[in-house]
Amino acid sequence: MSPYYRFLADLVVVIHLAFVIFVVMGSITTIWWRWVLWIHVPAVFWAVWIEISGGICPLTPLENWLRLKAGRGGYQGDFVENYILPVLYPAMLTRNIQILLGTLAIFINVAIYGYIFFQHKSKKGGFKL
Predict the structure, then answer these.
(1) Alpha-carbon 12 to chain mean position
(2) Is the residue at 63 inside a domain?
(3) Distance CA 20, CA 26 (A)
(4) Residue 42: which residues within 8 A CB-CB, separation 6 or more?
(5) Is residue 14 situated within a structural domain?
(6) Distance CA 67, CA 122 (A)
């Protein structure tokens, strides 16, 4: 029952949550740092693919393994189901909700990128990466 494994499992959760936030809102950072687009767009595609395909992010089994090594139980399901949905929704994660979350991530980012592109284009005559 090593506290190091528990710390590492908690660190994986923080990284996982930061990734989810980056996927949903990372397009905003391209207002200041255009280069983030090259990291953000693949991250969005990965997250949407995981949600829509019903797959599990590799961070989830890693966290479970670390929790088991720390003498604690792992959990069933995925990160969104275990950590995010209990905060946002009282019901269990369903396939329809996963598809909705993936689609929502796409729409949020397309809207933000569209706003940034057209706002910047109208001010400076073009959008440069």
Answers:
(1) 13
(2) yes
(3) 9
(4) none
(5) yes
(6) 51
